[in-house]
Each structure stands twice: as structure tokens, then as C-alpha cells.
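Notebook entry, cofactor series.
This is the third protein in the set we're modelling with a bound small molecule. For this one the ligand is coenzyme A. I'm keeping the input format identical across the series so the outputs can be compared line by line later. Sequence and SMILES below, as received.
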Amino acid sequence: MADLKENVGVKMVRKDLENLPQFALPFGYSFRAYRDGDEEHWLRIQRAADRFNKITPAWFDQEFGPDRGPLAERQFYILNPRRTPVGTGTAWLSDDCPEHWPGKIHWLAILPEYQGRGLGKALLTLLCNRLRELAHHGAYLLTSSARVIAIRLYSSFGFLPLIRNADEASAWKEFPLPLVLQSESLSSLLAPDPERYFPNSRKNVEAFS
Ligand SMILES: CC(C)(COP(=O)(O)OP(=O)(O)OC[C@H]1O[C@@H](n2cnc3c(N)ncnc32)[C@H](O)[C@@H]1OP(=O)(O)O)[C@@H](O)C(=O)NCCC(=O)NCCS
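Returned structure with ligand:
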């Protein structure tokens, strides 16, 4: 699948956590929550999966802070049948809102050799369910326009682009139509009026901005 020429940082939102798609892990795989020492697995997986960032050991603390307490209920790993972590993602807290709304889908990654087997869908299911269990009333995520497979996955879970500036609007227009036209939410991006991107958009945009 061809990547886009530019890689513009973008934001996607899901205004509620109702009617979430539910995908289970393939046979033989399992989830477990963060435990001491998983920083090493997180770094290994992110470095292998992420083609756009040069991830250093300091990133874990930068992203999740020095307190490991919340990770035990928010960060998850997918274990392969030999119980080696091959994927990770975090049902994290919002950068901006001190209260519990919305939650953040943070640092989803599957080792390249394990991609395309349904692990990402199962992990995103778990993370969205977890945010709901933890009383978040919506979710958002930050990604970038060249991550075509990720954007397609997120849109299939009902995440909508939240356009914050002209670069983002332009990036979404460039999004390859064959990948997005199946989704009513993303096809509506072609509409020139932001009000048409989101029903009740003014409320949503303010809430998520
Ligand atoms: C995004 C990512 C987590 C998806 O994980 P995954 O395990 O490959 O996803 P799944 O196997 O569950 O597939 C999800 C969808 O993507 C499609 N897909 C996965 N890999 C694909 C590929 N190489 N080419 C085309 N489609 C692909 C699947 O067919 C599926 O779509 P479908 O439901 O219509 O069949 C994974 O690609 C990844 O780690 N990417 C690199 C890191 C990254 O960019 N993370 C996102 C940061 S915001």
C-alpha cells in the first residue's frame, strides 16, 4: 500500500464510547496488562513498528510520566503463543483535560511480522472498552496522515478526523479515496463545510480541541 507523500500530524475523535466494534484476538494470542520491566518490550515493539519516529528509551517516561501506577490498568501487551509481547497500546489520559473525558488511544503498535492478522483490531477493541470501563465518555488519538493502515483502522472504529488547521484539512483531502470512501464519516470530509463533518460539530470541536 502506497504511503502519502506528506506526513501531517492529525487528530481523530470518537465523541462517545457506545456501540464499539468488538474483535477478539486470534487463537493462541492473549493480552496482559503492564508490569515492571515492560518498558523494554514497549521500546522494542515501537522501534520495530514505527517508520516515522526515532524512538529513544526516554520516550516512555516522556509519554507516560514517572508514575507507573496508572499503567497497570491502562497499558496492554499482546502475547504471541510463546507468550512474547508482539504488540502494545495504551488507554491513556487526555493531555488537556484533568477530568476523565475524553480518554486517549496512545501508541498502538504491532510488530511488523505480526501485522495483518487481526491483532490491531483486537487491541483497539480492548483499549476502547477499557476507556469506557474507566468512565471516559469519548476518545481521541493523534496520528499522522501517512499512517494509512492505522487511519483506516481508526475510522472503522468510528473515529472521525478533527481538523485543527489548513494543513490538516489539506492532508485529509489528499487521503486516498479508495481507502476511505466506504466510511460515511470520512467521505464527508470532502464536504467543504466543517459543520457537515460532524453532526453537532460545534459542540464536538470545542470539547475535543
Ligand atoms: C496500525 C497497526 C497497529 C494495525 O495493526 P494490525 O495488527 O496490522 O491490524 P489488523 O491486522 O487488525 O488489521 C486492521 C485492518 O488493517 C488492514 N491491514 C493491516 N495490515 C495491512 C496491510 N499491510 N495492507 C493493507 N491492509 C492492512 C486489515 O486488513 C484490517 O482491515 P479490515 O478490517 O478491513 O480487514 C499496525 O499496522 C502498526 O503497528 N503500524 C505501525 C505503527 C503505527 O503506525 N501505529 C499507529 C500509530 S497512531
